[in-house]
UniProtKB/TrEMBL annotation:
CDD domains: HisKA (cd00082), PAS (cd00130)
The protein's name in its UniProt record: histidine kinase
Pfam family, one: HATPase_c
EC annotation from Swiss-Prot or TrEMBL: 2.7.13.3
First-tier enzyme category under EC: transferase
Domain PAS, chain residue ranges per copy: 10-64
Keyword Kinase in record: yes
Domain Histidine kinase stretches: 145-353
Catalysed reactions, as listed in the record: ATP + protein L-histidine = ADP + protein N-phospho-L-histidine
């Protein structure tokens, strides 16, 4: 009986707040029973009003699997101050994981507790992403300085190996040449790594992008064929137009990109490379389309992060290097992907001298 009376009393009083309020609202009586919720609560908790009304509030938190570490302190604070706040992870009625903020305040004149609920999931995931990026860049800087430090002792190792070589017998020479090869390999790895993390000096020249792409495809074709992959190039460009860039760096960009495409196509298939002019802008667009496993949306956000990889033996440095080089050339990258179907990377590079044709010398 009291239930109905209280309900009528508060409903009249707070109806307009219910309609206007952007957060979730729950009215709870002295016994902890939920009397009313607004529609925002239905969308946050992914359930219907009827499921919630009449339920004990703590029972609701149990259903939501709320991890209340400070439940005791929370209740104490609520009694003492008349209001209290907490944040917790929950699982909604339809199973989605969310992070919510709950603020309960006692409504003296109505003998009710008003509970505000805010979905903080988006904010939380943004914070996590920021923390992640920060730790990545710190990690990257640390790794780069370690790589740099390793180079010096390696140079002396190399020097002494060569010195020993002059006096060693045949067996010794064999071992020393193995050591020498391994040092060279380590140096190559370090150079590749430092290229990603340090600014490099560029040699910019004017050249036709289609020749460069053709060279890259010829270079990658044997590796692709071994995995039953065919790479085809389609040119839609005016061959007299050139770009200004570092040929070697751009070559690495397209080698890395085609390598990623090959690695995504374990069952073979086609890689379509298209080079086209953009009619209204002085840019050339190189698109590399594969028929690989595609990239999930959550992964897509991170593929350009240094060290991010989904592969057992990946370095996660390919795309961050690509991003850096294309950026240094004043270009842009667009990625579109469908899981299970394939991925397309589009690289936009500015043409030299805008859209005025340049005479080939
Ligand atoms: P790595 O190849 O060493 O993993 P990259 O920086 O080249 O590092 O790529 C990062 C991640 O981006 C890969 O691990 C993969 O998950 C994803 N990726 C890149 N290119 C493709 C592609 N063509 N198809 C599917 N996933 C890709
Ligand atoms: Mg790669």
């Amino acid at each position: 009986m009291t239930f109905v009376v209280v309900e009528a009393k508060y409903k009249q009083k707070f109806e307009h707040v219910f309609q206007l309020y952007s957060g979730g609202l729950i009215f709870i009586n002295q016994e902890g029973i939920i009397l009313e919720v607004n529609s925002k609560i239905e969308s946050i908790l992914q359930t219907e009003r009827d499921e919630l009304c009449g339920m004990n509030a703590f029972h609701l938190l149990d259903i939501l699997k709320a991890n209340l570490e400070n439940k005791k302190e929370f209740i104490e604070e609520l009694h003492q101050k008349g209001h209290a706040e907490l944040f917790c992870d929950i699982q909604t009625f339809s199973g989605e994981l969310k992070y919510i903020g709950i603020r309960v305040s006692k409504q003296k004149d109505a003998d009710l507790y008003l509970t505000e609920v805010h979905d903080e999931s988006e904010k939380m995931s943004m914070k996590k992403r920021l923390d992640h990026t920060e730790s990545l860049s710190t990690l990257g800087q640390l790794a780069a300085s370690i790589a740099h430090e390793i180079r010096n002792p390696m140079t002396s190792l190399k020097g002494f190996t060569q010195l020993l070589f002059t006096t060693a017998n045949d067996e010794g020479k064999r071992y020393l040449s193995v050591i020498n090869d391994e040092i060279n390999r380590m140096e190559e790895i370090l150079t590749e790594f430092l290229e990603v993390s340090k600014p490099t000096t560029h040699i910019f020249t004017k050249f036709e992008i289609k020749n460069l792409i053709q060279e890259v495809v010829n270079f990658m074709a044997p590796q692709a064929l071994m995995q039953n992959i065919n790479a085809t190039i389609n040119f839609e460009v005016d061959h007299t137009r050139k770009i200004l860039g570092d040929r070697n760096l751009l070559k690495q960009v397209f080698i890395n990109s085609i390598k990623n495409a090959i690695e995504a196509m374990s069952h073979g298939g086609n890689i379509y490379i298209n080079i086209s002019d953009m009619r209204d802008k002085p840019y050339v667009c190189i698109s590399i389309e594969d028929q690989g496993y595609g990239i999930e949306e959550k992964v897509l956000e991170r593929i350009f992060d240094p060290f991010f990889t989904t592969k057992a033996y990946g370095t996660g440095l390919g795309l961050s290097h690509i991003n850096k080089v294309i950026g240094e050339h004043g270009g842009n990258i667009e990625v579109s992907s469908t899981v299970g179907k394939g991925t397309t990377f589009k690289f936009y590079l500015p043409l030299h001298n805008g859209n005025k044709p340049i005479l080939t010398i």
